[in-house]
């Protein structure tokens, strides 16, 4: 009986999944940090602030990370994730305004 080596594409796929999870975690942290300070904010402003922070590589005052490419779809996906988890909520009567 001979064991075959693990396929290279499987390792690559796992690395990509891990990188996407780390990116999602950073984005979720940025969103919650921004909304903790602002208390409520229009979803468009949240997206712009998160994208700006990603480009500058800033998680908040005094906390830096390597900047990475971030798109509005990524941020909106994380907003929906946080809404489903109960960390954020939509303002009554104004669903485009998010509250922490």
How would you describe the overall organization of this protein?
The chain has a single domain, classed as Winged helix-like DNA-binding domain superfamily/Winged helix DNA-binding domain (Arc Repressor Mutant, subunit A, Orthogonal Bundle). A three-stranded antiparallel β-sheet has the order 1-5-4. The protein has a two-stranded antiparallel sheet with strand order 2-3. The chain contains three helices and five strands, in the order αβαββαββ. The chain has helices spanning 8-38, 43-56, 72-85, and strands at residues 40-42, 58-60, 63-64, 89-91, 94-99. The chain is globular, with a radius of gyration of 17 Å. The mean pLDDT is 82. 59% of the residues lie in helices and 17% in strands. It has 100 residues and is α+β, with helices and mostly antiparallel strands.
At the fourth level of CATH, the homologous superfamily is Winged helix-like DNA-binding domain superfamily/Winged helix DNA-binding domain
Q: Compute the separation of the termini in Å.
A: 58 Å
Q: Let me know the largest β-sheet.
A: 3 strands, antiparallel
Q: What's the arrangement of strands in the largest beta sheet? A: 1-5-4
CATH topology term: Arc Repressor Mutant, subunit A
Shape: globular
Helical content (DSSP H or I, runs of 4+): 55-70%
Sheet-strand content, in percent, reads 15-25%
| The CATH architecture | Orthogonal Bundle
**Assembly category:** single chain
- Content-based structural category: alpha+beta
SSE order in H/E notation? HEHEEHEE
Q: Structurally, how many domains make up the residues?
A: 1
| Strand tally | 5
List unreliable stretches of 5+ residues.
none
The number of distinct helices, counting runs of at least 4 residues, comes to 3
Q: Rounded to an integer, what's the Rg over CA atoms?
A: 17 Å
Q: What is the class in the CATH system? A: Mainly Alpha
Mean pLDDT: 82
Protein name: CUL9 protein
Organism: Calyptomena viridis
């Amino acid at each position: 009986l001979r064991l075959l080596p693990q396929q290279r594409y499987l390792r690559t796929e796992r690395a990509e999944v891990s990188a996407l999870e780390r990116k999602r975690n950073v984005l979720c942290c940025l969103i919650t940090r921004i909304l903790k300070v602002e208390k409520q904010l229009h979803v468009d402003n949240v997206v712009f602030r998160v994208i700006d922070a990603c480009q500058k590589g800033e998680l908040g005052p005094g906390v830096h990370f390597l900047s990475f490419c971030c798109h509005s779809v990524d941020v909106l996906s994380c907003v929906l994730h946080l809404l489903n988890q109960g960390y954020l909520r939509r303002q009554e009567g104004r669903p485009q305004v998010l509250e922490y």
